[in-house]
Each structure stands twice: as C-alpha cells, then as structure tokens.
C-alpha cells in the first residue's frame, strides 16, 4: 500500500511524540529504581551489612570445665570424666559401610548402634558430625587413633561429663548436675549465654546448685563463618573461657561413707561437727541416692523406686528433716532455767511420775517416778517432771531464747538444697502463726522437746557443739574456694554462765558413763576418748489415757510410721571435746537403743580417723562390734571406692 | 511499501552498512554483557565454568547474528513478521503439548543443540508483527474500534498461552510490550485509560477470587504476592529468597564488598544467583556505584534506541525499535524491581547479564533488528 507524504509526516510526528512520552516514562521508572538502590545501598547500608554479618557469622560458645569438688583431705567427690566418643562425618568417610565395618573390627559395637548411627547420618547433611558411640574406653580410642589412616571420616573426640566417684555416699550434700531445662531458665534470672547451649549441665541440687556460679566458670567463644546450609567454612577467631573454680568441702569423705554405711537399712540422719572450727565432717542421710543416675538422665524405674520408697531416699534428713527433739531438748530447758536463776543446780524437785498442769496430767517416762531429783540426776536419768516444773518457772520465752542461742529454730546458712529452720516456739510465734494464746501446757510439752518444738540433726549437732565448747560455733561446709580458706566457724563465747555449761557437760558425761545413765550402754571405754551425750525419744503419736491405763504399747508392736523417733546427741572426748554428733533415727524406737550406738560408732570412727580398735568398746560388745565392722567394711568395698557404679 | 515511498536520498549498501550501524548501542551492549561475564565468573567462585565460558560463546554467536540481521534490509524483516509471529504461536502451542517441564513450568523445547524457550522468541515476534500491522494499517483507522480489537487479539493469544505455562513474568512483558507498540502507533488515549481502569478492576477481582471456586491465580502466585507484600511473614520459606536478596543488595553499600568478596553470594545465601538474582551479587560486590552504573548503561541503550526511532521516518522501523526497546526496558526494570523488593518475584532474568542461552540470543537478534532499522533509515 502506498502512502502519501502527508501521512508519513503525520505518522512520524505521532510516533515521535508518543516515543517521547514512553521514553520519559522509562526514565521516570529508571529514576525510581535508582532512588531505591540509593536508599537501600547508601541510606540503609549499615543495617543490611549487619544482617549479612549475622547471616554469615555464628558464635559458638566454648563451655568451660566445671570446677571440681574435693573433701577436706583432697579426695575428689565430684570430678569431670573424660568422655570419649567416636564421631563420623559422612562426606569424608566415602564408603560409609566399608569404614564402619573396619571400625567394628577395632571396637566392639553392636549392630543396633551402627544402624542407629547410619539412620542419623542419612537424616542429616553429609558434613554434620554424627556420634556413633560414646563412653568408650581409652583402649578403644587408642586403637581408633592408631588406625586413623584406614578410617576415613572417623575421629575420636573427648568431652567432659560429671562424675561422682562416691555416688550415694555424698548424694545429699554434693547434689548433682543435669541438663538445663526450660523450667530452670524460667526460674533463674541468669543471663549467662552458656545456659543457651543445649543440654548444658548445671547444678540442680546440693552444693552443685548452691555454688553453681563458682563451679561453672565463664564461657569462651569462637566466631565461625558458615554458609547458607550451616556448613562451617572457617574459624575467624577464638577466645578461651575461664574454667570453674574448685571447691574443697569440710566433709571427710571416709567418715561420710562410714556414717552412710553405718546407717544402712535405717531411715536416719547424722551430723558430725568439728569443734575446733565448726567444720561439718559428715552430713549423712540414709537411705541415699546415686547422683550419677541423674547426670545420665534417670530412668523411669529408678525415679519411681526413689519416690515410692517409704524411707524417702531423696530427703536430706540430716539438714532438712525437722523432728521433735524429745529429751535432747532438756539441756535447753535446764540452761534457760539455770541462767534465769529460777532454779539452783542442786535444788531438788519431787517427781511422783506425773505432773498436773491446769487439769491435764503430764507423765514422766518412769511411771513410778524419780522421787526428789536435782538437775544432774534429772538429766542423767532423763526425768520429765523436773523439766515440767522448771519450765513453768522460767517460761517459754526464755526457753526459746536459749534454744535460738544454741542454734535451734534458726536457719544455718549452708550451701545445701534445703536447710530446715526448725522451730523454737514462743508466745509471739503462737499468736502470729496460730492466732492462739500460749498455754502453760504448751510450755510443759516444750520442756521435754515435744509439742511445737522442731529441730534438725544439724541443729542438734550445733547445739551440742555450743554446749561442749561454750562458744558460738557456726557450722561450716565449704573449707576453701579456689584455694582460698573460708572463715572458721568458731565464734565468740556464748553469753551463758560457764558454771552452768560445765554442770550441763558433767551431767551429759553421766548420761553415758554413769551406770544409771540412759546412754550407758553406748559408752566408750578407751582412755581419753570418753563420750558425753543425751538420749531422746520423741513421740509422733498421742498416748491416750486408756492406753496409759492399759500399759503403753511397745514400739516393736506398732507399725513403723507410728513408732517413736530415736535421737542422740553427743560430744567427745569429754575432757577435751573434738567432735559433736547428732543422730536421728526416724521411728527407730528409743534413743538409747537405736540412735546412741550409731553416734558412738561414728564418733569412734572420727576420733581414730579410721576403724577404731575393739578395745575402745565395752568388752561385752566387742564380738558384735567386730562382726558389724566387717559388715560395714564389706559394704563400703562393694559400693566401690573411687569408681562410679555402672 | 512505505520504505520505497520515503524518497530516500541515500541508503548504504554492501559493507558500507557496517559504518552506519548504531555503534554506541553495540558498545553499550558489550559493556553490559561484560558486567554479566564478571558476575558469572564471581558467582562460580572464581571460575570460568560452568557459566561464564558458555555465556561468552553465546554472546559471540549472538553478536555475529546481530550484525547479520542488521545487514538485511528492514523491509525484509517486515515481510517476515507475520511468518515469525505464526511460528512463535505454533511453538508456544507445541511447548504446551510436548514441552519439558523445568522449574515447575513448561517453558522450553529441546532442539538438541540448544533449548529453545518459545516465550523468549515471542516477546520479539509479537512486537515485530504489531509494528508491521500498524505499518500496513491506514493511519486514519488506527483508533477505529475494529482495528484496535485485532492487535488486542494478537497480543492476548500468546499472553494466554504463556500464562498457561505458567509464566507470569513473560505474560506481563508481552502485554506491556504489545501495548507500547499500540500506544506509540497512535491508538487513542481513551482505550488505554479504559484498559487501565479495567485492569485495576481485574486486579481487585483477582484478590476477591482468592479462596473461592473461581480463583483466578494459582496458589503459588498468590503466595508470591503475599511474600512480596511482607517478606518477613515467611522468612524461612518463600520470603527467604527476597529477604536474602535485599540483604545482599543493601550490604553492598556505596562501593561494594569487592569483586568475589560478597559473603551473601559466596556462602550460598542467595537464590538463583547466576540467573534471576544476579543483580544482587553485582550490587553486593560493586555496591551502589556498580549497580547505578549498570542501570545507567541500560538507560543509555534505551535512550539511543528511542532517539533512533524518533529520527526514523519509516513507520515499521520506528515502531519495531520502540517496541523492542520497551521489551528490553521491561526486562531489566521488572528484574531490578523484583530483587529490590519493589515487585513480586515473577521470574524475569536480568537481560544480557543473567545466565541463559535463548534469552541472550533472542535479545541480540532483536538488537539486530534495531540495527537494521537504524542502518536502513531513510535518509
């Protein structure tokens, strides 16, 4: 088709005009693109640069080695075990099956383990190291390393895991570590990045928990460059952390293990205090549990067993258990009365076998009564009526004051999971807590450590230590941290007339060493080793008038839960006291029969710093003691010294 | 034959035609492609294989083809326009029936020595045929409704076929490229205003259709739009690509992190870093200056083409030049808008820089057509 020149001109003009519009529009769009580039690359460059660095750089924390825990003699009771594991990287292994077949020839590994490793390997990227097996022996590791050239992609790695060589013997004191949980993170306000490491081990109970920050150390870190798939390209730099500090406890591991073994089969707690400095030489609670079980992740069966045991292995009875102290409280009542001057030491009180207080009859343990009895005899024979009388004279508030002065009803500051506060009741307490007025009957009950009074074995040991030394002994569990000795627990003299204390100690000496003393059967006969003490038997049930008329049911005839608690507090040697011990045997029956023998055996073990000679025991007992010593030695050997039970 | 009616006073012949090539455009193309080679070398981790070397070979082949096409008189190409368009449509139908599926979409036919993407070809042949149509159509009929309907049909036919593949990006390019030719040919404003209004209505309708039985877009297309609107919605899924691309781009800063020093690309955080997202690598390693430099090169190419068209009295030549220039413009504008987070990810490569055989060859042949129009301009 031909076109006239005019058409061509029109067309050309239209096209040019519209081309200009299109061109302008294109320039406009290009301008917007340019502006966008400018805003992203110039204005926001720093933000994007940061995001790119975050993409590329990963910070990996280097967990520090946890501090060790030693006993007073330098025996490690919590240490870090080299945990060898064998690891494979698929892409470096080449023929995985062939390499694994070679590995099995060197290290005995079950079909199961190999299959699990293979599944794990093919589920993950080829460059991710997969653990085939852990807790290998050093021999296995050596064999793998020697044959490394034939085992492509396989390496033996070493990590640290917590181990408690003495297992259950120290379980209640040391506690255990476990992987940090969401619950832990929610509960503790701790910004430490280490807690973000999956399965990082932190102290869950006991010293491990209370001194967590000392033991943990601080994290190091390394910065690594990773690609989009998470493959590590290179390490950029590294900063080592600081290992946790070592802790030395005052505990004597051998004595602790002995005490645990001695109380085997009982539900009991015992505390040994060194009178020179307040050191807790042993804090034993039976039965106990093996903390190693918790480190590896406790099985449902083990957990159920621990929880359903009626002797409550998880309860740290020595520090946590609060019991009516029974007759072991009589020193408190007596000292309060003597100190207040309401009774003279040689003044006698008549004991007809009972006392009537505002219409209620309170019985002495001896139905026939003790007749006229002074302080010395009342403590030796544990006459109740004497204390009913003097307590009414001195009043509960002065008794409570004395109790607190001697360490009862106050919480001792120790790095343990639970430390019982106990209870030294007074009028204000009853009004505040129960909204009732204090009655005289309450005072009478409290005078013999019944009623509202509660104390832990630890508190009773502190009380005994303070009576024995006349000083403000404070229990001390941590001897040194990172080599720095902690302050001694031996405090100032108590504001109690030394005469009364001396008389009190003499009476406690008589309790054990006088033929008519209640603890006489548990005496020590070795020269210079004599023990002083006080028995206690505290009721956990009410004895009705009918039962008393019928004759009180004997403990052996009652179900275990309703039997009396047996208590015994003691110190030795009488002439120059070195140790104070308190023992509580839950529902053990009588203090003289159930608790005193345990206290004596532990005391002898402490005094001789090892098994005592049979000559230290009264000759009649030696046969039985010899057998018992053998049995305990066997048991300690069986638990396995220095080896963690598998 | 308008070409002969132009009373041309001088038309170069034989090898002299080489002197009349639009040389600035050739040098600009070379510069753009060189950017591409550098980036392909970089994203391969400093290696000529697997991408830079084949790309250079195709570029060399493309340049020869371009000059070859440029030597052929423009009227020949006008006469071929109908055939080329018909062939493209046939190939599009063919790819629908026998095509291979790659990246989730049916896009190419394996010719043995190369894989042909008919949709690439169609972008040029559509513009070409429309230019020929308006060259043939008497000027006074340009805005007549009947004669407007015909090119609309010509545009919609390949657009619908490409949408069916499904390839949203190419469909968009076809639609806008074709519309541009109609616009510069002189079709009345009112049509474009109407279509624009209808388009806005259609977009609203598309969004309304979501989740209903008459849903107009595929779910993946809706998700791309969602991701575009807020990439942080799905930072590890569909939004990951665009987020990482923006990080790479922004972290380049003013002067870039240096050649082969881009961490986002060398550590594989970038998706499709040798094809659709190659611009982000460039922007990361050469910074704002590099990015704006490439954009300037592109814009200069467009400006030279527009200038060439405005001075060309041959109606077919002018329309063809503008149409191809618009298509080229849409290529890089959509790609850059996409990687800078201004447009949804629709799968449009960066022209002459992204790795890809048929796209490069087709584009260089298209520039051959522009060169032919330039060389054979009535003088």
Topology:
The complex is a heterodimer of chains A (646) and B (379).
Chain A: H1 5-43, H2 45-56, E1 57-62, E2 69-70, E3 76-89, H3 90-93, H4 96-106, H5 111-123, E4 129-136, H6 138-146, E5 154-163, H7 171-174, E6 177-179, H8 182-187, E7 201-203, H9 206-210, H10 212-216, E8 220-226, E9 232-239, E10 247-249, H11 253-262, E11 268-274, E12 280-286, H12 291-295, H13 300-308, H14 317-320, H15 330-340, E13 349-351, E14 354-357, E15 360-363, E16 371-373, H16 375-381, H17 384-394, H18 396-405, H19 427-434, H20 440-447, H21 457-469, E17 478-481, E18 484-485, H22 498-513, E19 532-538, H23 545-550, E20 565-572, E21 579-585, H24 591-607, H25 622-639
Parallel strand pairs in A: 2-10
Antiparallel strand pairs in A: 1-8, 2-3, 3-4, 3-5, 6-7, 8-9, 10-17, 11-12, 11-21, 13-16, 14-15, 17-18, 19-20, 20-21
Chain B: H1 2-5, H2 23-43, H3 52-71, H4 74-98, E1 100-102, E2 105-110, E3 115-116, H5 118-136, H6 145-163, H7 168-185, H8 189-209, H9 219-229, H10 238-251, H11 263-266, H12 278-310, H13 315-339, H14 357-375
Task: Please give a structural write-up.
The complex is a heterodimer of chains A (646) and B (379). Chain A is of the alpha+beta class and 646 residues long. Chain A has 2 domains: 60-249, Penicillin-binding protein 2a (Domain 2) (Alpha-Beta Complex), CATH 3.90.1310; 253-303 and 312-639, Beta-lactamase, CATH 3.40.710. Chain A has 25 helices and 21 strands. In chain A, the strands form 6 sheets. In chain A, strands 2, 3, 4, 5, 10, 17 and 18 form a 7-stranded mixed sheet that branches. In chain A, strands 12-11-21-20-19 form a 5-stranded antiparallel sheet. The radius of gyration of chain A is 37 Å and the shape is elongated. Mean pLDDT of chain A is 89; it is low at 641-646. Chain B is 67% helix and 3% strand. Chain B has 14 helices and 3 strands. Chain B has a 3-stranded antiparallel sheet. In chain B, a hairpin with a 4-residue loop joins β2 (105-110) and β3. In chain B, α4 (74-98) packs across α6. Chain B is globular, with a radius of gyration of 21 Å. At the A-B interface, α1 and α2 of A face α7, α10, α12 and α13 of B.
């Amino acid at each position: 088709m031909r076109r006239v020149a005019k058409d061509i001109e029109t067309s050309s003009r239209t096209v040019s005009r519209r081309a200009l519009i299109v061109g302008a529009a294109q320039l406009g769009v290009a301008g917007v693109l340019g502006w966008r580039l400018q805003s992203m690359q110039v204005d926001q460059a720093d933000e994007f640069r940061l995001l790119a660095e975050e993409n590329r750089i990963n910070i990996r924390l280097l967990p520090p080695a946890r501090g060790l825990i030693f006993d007073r003699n330098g025996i490690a009771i919590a240490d870090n075990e080299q945990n060898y594991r064998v690891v494979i990287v698929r892409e470096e292994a080449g023929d995985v099956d062939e390499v694994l077949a070679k590995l099995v020839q060197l290290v005995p590994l079950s079909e199961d383990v190999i299959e699990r490793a293979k599944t794990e390997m093919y589920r993950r990227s080829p460059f991710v190291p997969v653990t085939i097996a852990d807790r290998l022996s050093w021999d296995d590791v050596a064999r793998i390393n020697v044959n490394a050239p034939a085992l492509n992609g396989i390496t033996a790695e070493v990590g640290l895991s917590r181990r408690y060589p003495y297992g259950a013997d120290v379980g209640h004191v040391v506690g255990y570590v476990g992987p940090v949980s969401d619950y832990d993170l929610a509960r503790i306000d701790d910004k430490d990045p280490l807690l973000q490491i999956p399965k990082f081990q932190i102290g869950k109970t006991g010293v491990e928990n209370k001194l967590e920050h000392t033991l943990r150390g601080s994290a190091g870190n390394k910065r690594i460059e990773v690609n989009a798939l998470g493959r590590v390209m290179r390490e950029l730099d590294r900063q080592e952390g600081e290992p946790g500090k070592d802790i030395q406890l005052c505990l004597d591991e051998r004595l602790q293990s002995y005490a645990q073994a001695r109380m085997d089969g009982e539900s009991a707690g015992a505390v040994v205090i060194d009178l020179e400095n307040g050191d807790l030489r042993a804090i034993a609670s039976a039965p106990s549990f093996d903390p190693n079980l918790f480190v590896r992740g406790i099985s449902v069966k083990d957990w159920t067993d621990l929880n359903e045991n009626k002797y409550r292995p998880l309860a740290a009875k020595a520090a946590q258990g609060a019991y009516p102290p029974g007759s072991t409280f009589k020193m408190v009542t007596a000292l309060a009365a003597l100190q207040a001057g309401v009774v003279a030491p040689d003044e006698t009180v008549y004991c007809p076998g009972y006392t009537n207080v505002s219409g209620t009859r309170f019985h002495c343990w001896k139905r026939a009564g003790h007749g006229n009895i002074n302080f010395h005899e009342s403590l030796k024979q544990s006459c109740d009526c004497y204390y009913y009388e003097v307590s009414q004279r001195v009043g509960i508030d002065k008794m409570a004051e004395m109790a607190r002065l001697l360490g009862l009803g106050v919480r001792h500051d120790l790095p343990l999971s639970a430390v019982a506060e106990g209870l030294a009741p007074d009028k204000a307490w009853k009004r505040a807590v129960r909204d009732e007025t204090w009655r005289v009957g309450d005072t009478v009950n409290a005078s013999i450590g019944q009623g509202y009074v509660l104390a832990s074995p630890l508190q009773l040991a502190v009380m005994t230590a303070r009576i024995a030394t006349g000083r403000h002994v404070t229990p001390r569990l941590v001897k040194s941290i990172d080599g720095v000795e902690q302050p001694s627990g031996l405090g100032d003299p108590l504001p109690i007339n030394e005469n009364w204390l001396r008389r009190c100690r003499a009476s406690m000496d008589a309790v054990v060493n006088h033929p008519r003393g209640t603890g006489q059967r548990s005496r020590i006969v070795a020269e210079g080793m004599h023990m002083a003490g006080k028995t206690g038997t505290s009721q956990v049930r009410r004895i009705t008038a009918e039962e008393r008329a019928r004759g009180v049911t004997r403990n052996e005839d009652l179900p275990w839960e309703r039997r009396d608690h047996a208590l015994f507090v003691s110190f030795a040697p009488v002439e120059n006291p070195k140790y104070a011990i308190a023992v509580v045997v839950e529902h053990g029956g009588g203090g003289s029969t159930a608790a005193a023998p345990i206290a004596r055996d532990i005391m002898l073990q402490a005094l001789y710093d090892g098994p005592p000679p049979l000559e230290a025991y009264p000759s009649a007992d030696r046969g039985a003691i010899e057998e018992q010593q053998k049995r305990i030695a066997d048991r300690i050997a069986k638990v396995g010294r220095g080896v963690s039970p598998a | 034959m308008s070409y002969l009616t132009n009373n041309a006073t001088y038309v170069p012949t034989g090898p002299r035609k080489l002197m009349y090539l639009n040389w600035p455009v050739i040098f600009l193309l070379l510069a753009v492609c060189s950017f591409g080679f550098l980036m392909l070398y970089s994203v391969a981790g400093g290696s000529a294989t697997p991408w830079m070397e084949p790309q250079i070979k195709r570029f060399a082949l493309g340049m020869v083809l371009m000059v070859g096409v440029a030597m052929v008189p423009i009227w020949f190409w006008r006469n071929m326009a109908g055939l080329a368009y018909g062939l493209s449509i046939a190939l599009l139908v063919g790819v629908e029936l026998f095509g291979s599926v790659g990246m989730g979409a049916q896009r190419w036919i394996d010719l043995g020595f190369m894989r042909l993407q008919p949709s690439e070809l169609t972008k040029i042949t559509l513009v070409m045929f429309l230019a020929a149509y308006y060259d043939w159509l008497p000027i006074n009929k340009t805005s007549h409704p009947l004669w407007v309907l015909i090119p609309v049909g010509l545009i919609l036919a390949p657009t619908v076929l490409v949408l069916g593949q499904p390839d949203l990006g190419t469909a968009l390019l076809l639609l806008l490229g074709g519309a541009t030719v109609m616009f510069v040919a002189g079709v009345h404003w009112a049509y474009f205003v109407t279509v624009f209004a209808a388009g806005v209505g259609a977009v609203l309708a598309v969004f309304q259709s979501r989740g209903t039985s008459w849903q107009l877009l595929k779910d993946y297309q809706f998700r791309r739009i969602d991701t575009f609107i807020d990439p942080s919605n799905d930072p590890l899924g569909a939004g990951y690509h665009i987020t990482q691309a923006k990080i790479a781009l922004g972290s380049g800063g003013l002067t870039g992190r240096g050649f082969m020093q881009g961490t986002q690309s060398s550590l594989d955080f970038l998706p499709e870093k040798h094809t659709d997202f190659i611009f982000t690598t460039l922007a990361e390693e050469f910074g704002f200056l590099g990015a704006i430099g490439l954009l300037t090169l592109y814009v200069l190419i467009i400006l030279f083409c527009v200038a060439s068209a405005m001075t060309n009295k041959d109606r077919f030549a002018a329309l063809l030049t503008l149409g191809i220039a618009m298509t080229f413009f849409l290529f890089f504008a959509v790609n850059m808008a996409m990687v800078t987070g201004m447009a949804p990810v629709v799968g449009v490569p960066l022209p002459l820089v992204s790795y890809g055989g048929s796209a490069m060859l087709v584009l260089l042949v298209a520039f051959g057509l522009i060169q032919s129009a330039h060389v054979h301009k009535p003088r």
